[in-house]
Amino acid sequence: MSRDNTTTHSVLIGIAIAIVIGGAAWVITGSPGAVSRHGVGLSSPGGEPVFVSVEAGDSASSIAKRLQSTGVIDSAASFERLAKITGGDRALAAGEYEFVPGTSVLDALTRIHSGLTSARIVTIPEGLRLEEIAALLEKREVVKASDFLAAVNALATNGTGLDTDLLKDKPRSATLEGYLFPATYSFKRNIEAPEVALQMVSSLSKALPPALRAEARAQGMSLHEVLTLASIVEREAVIASDRPLIASVYRNRLKIDMPLQADPTVQYAVASRPGSVVEYGYWKNQLTQQDLQFDSTYNTYAKIGLPPGPIANPGIDSIIAVIRPANTKYLYFVARNDGSHAFAETFEQHEANVEKYQR
Prior knowledge:
Oligomer: single chain
Shape: elongated
């Protein structure tokens, strides 16, 4: 990041500077805290975090007073003098910053000069439902789960700020299930739920470049269909090398109008049954014959073809696996109970694999 000042950032943290102010000599030796005199580095950082907001146009003086009044630094005067002598007073970035009491003046100035605002780092794993993502965001104190779900529903309806090409195949009545990209995000501390939702959908847009979209459509698949099948692959696959193989099984079945018979779609369906989530969670482990007959458009044992939409939010590897499946004639697979799957072209081969690995 370049800034319009005559003193580079390295001056603040990497070069020894002799500063003479009011007849007193200060020596900055290069590491935050290694500064003596007037409280620049005398306090030992500790205690609960303190959040300080810096608004655009705030002066070094006003920021310094705010830092001192909240106990972040010992001396506002020291902060202001250091900012002036290094040129940092002309390049203080707006934002919300997190400090511990007793932070050195040098450290505080360096962070505000560089725009190192406080943030919440959250990793969204592949294969979660909307509700699970919402719960994770609330657990990490980013936004409330209810606010996030409301924001996602509103975004699905109005589409404000979204990539129209990405969503053009999504039915208007469908949610954004499958469109929230799993990744590691750095959310600012005071972020609002609509911005979180928009950021996650925008990340999917960036992960799907025009060439990859064109490749899918050339095969007769809409992006909505790709995400739908990718979400199933995501829930089935445990090891990366199985993804293209699992995708090939489902695409082969789709070609011959054979039911997908994907357990994750049944898990998604039965979660809508009253009391099911409380008792079994969102992904019921042991499905019964009654579950497999559950009347739902998402039940791919009972319905032929893809479900009406994604059942989870897939990662890029599962999306690519659907667009570029392995070239096989497989129609069946069964878990080996070590994370991998055994694949078969015929029902007889599949039965033998079931007998070997499941019974």
